[in-house]
């Protein structure tokens, strides 16, 4: 199932503003920092799956600074170089895009934009090394009860809440299942089709040419073309105080198991045993045809000695619940004025899967002046006054002025244009040179 974003900001229609959720969290009896257990399992076929797990990341020196956790899966292809590079550099690139001295709600509000900048910078820096491997990424940041997921490719992250409801927190960027991405790639100059064999028959999944990649978004893949973009789908949610279970897995799991099957096969098991059971069932179903990696994370109240286990599935709950409960802005304002009694539900704060960099770097936030004026919004280098290029430089919208920020340096502007098909990508340029 593909989860696609369309909302333009944290306070979009029907969504609960981040500041409202955080005030509830701090003012109610709910916990601010839950306990967490996690488990990891992997069966390797190609040696191209990598994971990143860090439970004590420093958020910064701002007001109320605390630690946050990161769990990520990198599924490499055409070699492991891109997966290794992303594992070693992505988190730092994300954090460099967040100004220091922010309090918690400001930090979390800045995170979706910083994830976009960090993904694009990591891709740009790796491509500068002229290596041709690529990687999918599913990157999960957990700060208190707020979970933020950024994803490119076909590794996935799902959430099961305490009542047994299933939420899809990532997107699937396989060309076979995402028609919007097919249209984007072809409009940017790529070709999409299946492999041709003798007699004109077509076999296998849809692929992008040149290169033959089945995905429309990844980090790396210099030989495919820059219309295969690193701009991630980002979803940010707030869990109820009861917590829930996250499953983060490479496509070796999802090619064999449905979301519901993965949850069912490990229900009642602790995270380490759950991850092992998911991988075991995936390999049993399809054989070890690909690297198969799974991270299971349980989030639960600290006063409990073990995480809450979801109850057995009720009749009629077989249909995936991938739509979030959303409060209206009117009800949110009303509850702030008095006592607030909140049911155990998962609430959406933010979602956007747009491929347009200008949209992703120019979101509205609860505070002003969050980002430095004369710094490239992607690579964070200083730009002298008058030298920066607005991310809206080629915008046809009358609602923005092209001289307004955020600003890009010359190099990042060239990257933006290549991703949007406004200039030949490096792969197509090499193809044209070879034909001449």
Q: What's this entry about, in short?
A:
The protein is of the alpha+beta class and 436 residues long.
Report on the architecture of this protein.
Its cofactor is Mn(2+); Mg(2+). Belongs to the PP2C family. Pfam families: PP2C (PF00481). Residues 415-436 are annotated as: Disordered. Keywords: Hydrolase, Magnesium, Manganese, Metal-binding, Protein phosphatase. This protein is an alpha+beta fold and 436 residues long. It has one domain: PPM-type phosphatase domain (Phosphatase 2c, domain 1). 28% of the residues lie in helices and 24% in strands. It has eleven helices and 16 strands. It has helices at 18-27, 81-96, 104-127, 179-187, 251-254, 259-266, 271-286, 329-337, 357-361, 410-419, 426-435; strands at residues 35-43, 49-58, 67-77, 134-143, 146-152, 156-161, 166-168, 191-196, 202-209, 219-220, 233-238, 244-249, 292-300, 347-352, 389-390, 407-408. Strands 2, 3, 4, 5, 10, 11 and 14 form a seven-stranded antiparallel beta sheet that branches. The protein has a five-stranded antiparallel beta sheet with strand order 1-13-12-6-7. β4 and β5 form a beta hairpin. The longest helix has 24 residues, at 104-127. It is globular, with a radius of gyration of 22 Å. It starts with 17 loop residues before the first helix and ends with a helix. The model is unreliable at 1-13, 26-31, 313-341, 365-369 and 428-436 (pLDDT under 50).
């Amino acid at each position: 199932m593909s989860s696609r974003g369309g909302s333009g900001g944290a306070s979009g229609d029907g969504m609960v503003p981040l500041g409202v959720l955080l005030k509830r969290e701090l003012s109610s009896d709910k916990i601010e920092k839950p306990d967490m257990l996690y488990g990891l399992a992997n069966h390797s076929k190609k040696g191209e799956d990598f994971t990143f797990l860090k439970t004590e990341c420093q958020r910064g020196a701002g007001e109320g600074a605390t630690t946050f956790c990161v769990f990520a899966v990198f599924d490499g292809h055409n070699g492991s170089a891109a997966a290794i590079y992303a594992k070693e550099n992505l988190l730092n690139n994300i954090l460099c895009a967040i100004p220091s001295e922010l309090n918690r709600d400001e930090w979390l509000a800045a995170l979706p934009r910083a994830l976009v900048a960090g993904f694009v910078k990591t891709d740009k820096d790796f491509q500068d090394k002229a290596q041709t491997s690529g990687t999918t990424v599913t990157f999960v940041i957990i700060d208190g009860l707020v979970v933020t997921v950024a994803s490119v490719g076909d590794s996935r992250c799902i959430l099961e809440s305490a009542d047994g409801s299933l939420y899809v927190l990532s997107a699937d960027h396989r060309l076979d299942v995402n028609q919007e991405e097919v249209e984007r790639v072809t409009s940017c100059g790529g070709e999409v089709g299946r492999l041709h064999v003798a007699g004109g028959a077509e076999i296998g999944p849809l692929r992008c040419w040149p290169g033959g990649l089945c995905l429309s978004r990844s980090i790396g893949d210099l030989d495919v073309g820059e219309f295969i973009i690193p701009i991630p789908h980002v979803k940010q949610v707030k869990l109820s105080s009861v917590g829930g279970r996250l499953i983060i897995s490479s496509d070796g799991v999802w090619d064999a198991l449905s979301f519901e099957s993965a949850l069912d096969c490990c229900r009642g098991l602790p995270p380490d045993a759950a991850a092992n059971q998911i991988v075991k069932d995936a390999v049993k179903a399809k054989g070890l045809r690909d690297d198969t990696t799974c991270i299971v994370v349980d989030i639960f109240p600290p006063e409990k000695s073990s995480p809450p286990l979801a109850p057995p599935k009720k009749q009629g709950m077989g249909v995936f619940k991938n739509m979030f409960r959303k409060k209206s802005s009117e009800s949110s304002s009303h509850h702030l004025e008095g006592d607030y009694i909140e049911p155990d539900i998962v609430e959406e704060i933010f979602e956007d899967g747009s491929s347009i960099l200008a949209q992703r770097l120019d979101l509205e936030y609860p505070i002003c002046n969050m980002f430095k004026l004369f710094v490239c919004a992607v690579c964070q280098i200083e730009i002298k006054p008058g030298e920066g290029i607005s991310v809206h430089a080629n915008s046809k919208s009358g609602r923005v002025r092209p001289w307004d920020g955020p600003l890009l340096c010359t190099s990042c502007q060239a990257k933006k244009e290549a991703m949007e098909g406004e200039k030949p990508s490096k792969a197509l340029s090499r193809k044209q040179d070879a034909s001449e």
